[in-house]
Amino acid sequence: MTLQPTIGVLALQGDFHQHAVTLRALGACVHEVRKPSQLDGLDGLIIPGGESTTIARLMLAYDLHEPVRRRGLAGLPIWGTCAGAILLADDVPGLDRPALALLPITIERNAYGRQIDSFETDLDAPALPPTTDGTRPPYHAIFIRAPRIRSLGDGVEVLMAHDGEPVAVRYRALLATTFHPELTTDQRWHQYFLNTVNRDRIQRPAQTKGPILQAAGGGP
Amino acid sequence: MVVETGTHTVKSGLAEMLKGGVIMDVVTAEQALIAQEAGACAVMALERVPSDIRKQGGVARMSDPTKVREIIDAVTIPVMAKARIGHFVEASILQALGVDYVDESEVLTPADEKLHINKWRFDVPFVCGCRDLGEALRRMAEGAAMIRTKGEAGTGNIVEAVRHMRAVQGAIRALVAMDDEELVNYAKEIGAPVELVRQTKQAERLPVVNFAAGGIATPADAALMMRLGADGVFVGSGIFKSDQPERMADAIVRATTHYNDDAILAEVSTGLGDAMPGLSMDEIPESERLSKRGW
Prior knowledge:
Chain A is an alpha/beta fold. Chain A is built from five helices and twelve strands.
């Protein structure tokens, strides 16, 4: 095992570039993913913010939907931010293309209103690792045409909340955040995801990370 | 805890979410649905596409609110709409209608021949056109949260879009090489606030998202603009004035994602029928050039 984890960032549309910049600053090797073959050999995958309607269509159009889903079912750590969180969910009212259905949550799109209702705020972040001085400062979260998580399935853990509603959740090796950590200079959520990836690299046999030809957990 | 809306961060943040995407001009809800189906990351509502504005002449204004509402109701992707340069009341109306971005656009007939809208006063974000770095940074100084190079709308001719994108990117490359003394003088020369010039030098790019616009008519045009450094593209008349709008829209989206993959570009450029009819710049008198509007 090499020291650096290799993280793919789905680069069909949206703010994939900022994720790559932050991951590289934290020492990860980053690949942009636009074709199915580019999913091979990844230790983790990020589905970035963007337009969920657009990314859902492009994942189907570029034959990425099934390969990403298969890897998710096989245990590949995947982090979805905003539109990415929507795509991970198994219930998205009104989305006219299938989501990946990996994460047992119901998530409602554009649920705070239109762009003028987009907001930023400080949130308590007990799940994040402490900073070097041993404190856990609040996390400044940016919500842009953000979705809201309306219900949680069994085994979904809430990592951060806003007004009592979950905005960051974890399920097995999957992470979903409805805000945009890549738009801030605070790298704690990216570090959190890399910690998940590194734990997974130790625990999961390497052969599940290569090309996966058979559907590991059945089709949709 | 304090919740802040309408900040520059959330305004420019939405533009970040549009990157790598195609924003398509639409005049009806039906066209908006075609655009969304093809994979557009946003639509731009306007009363006539630029090539019709050019042909028909007259005063081009903000779209009818009925149309804007129909388009907002029809799609889930963000909806942008155009207001005339300096027409802050049209912009206020568009904000009240709930559009996600206002384009203070030279494609419409300017309402003010000297001043642009003070965009800081609004909660809705603005995108503005530019021909060079100075113009881009002046629009940012007025509060624009996204920039697009102007090109020459409604022509199906990419030459002006290339000229403007090269002007911006070339100026940034020159700026990166300057020392701090040169920087202050350079800000004066291009008529831009020195603080924004400094930010541009530091980031080695425009401090906000920069799309290409004005003349993109084929998948190859879209990929060309991406390779020249655009963060995404606006396509106006190029889709709904082509032979097969659905196929052209789909092909331009694919070309924008895969702009560096020649095999995919060859595939998506095949069998599209005629692109929109193009206009040579010699056919357009100086006085009718839309890109000259805005100051």
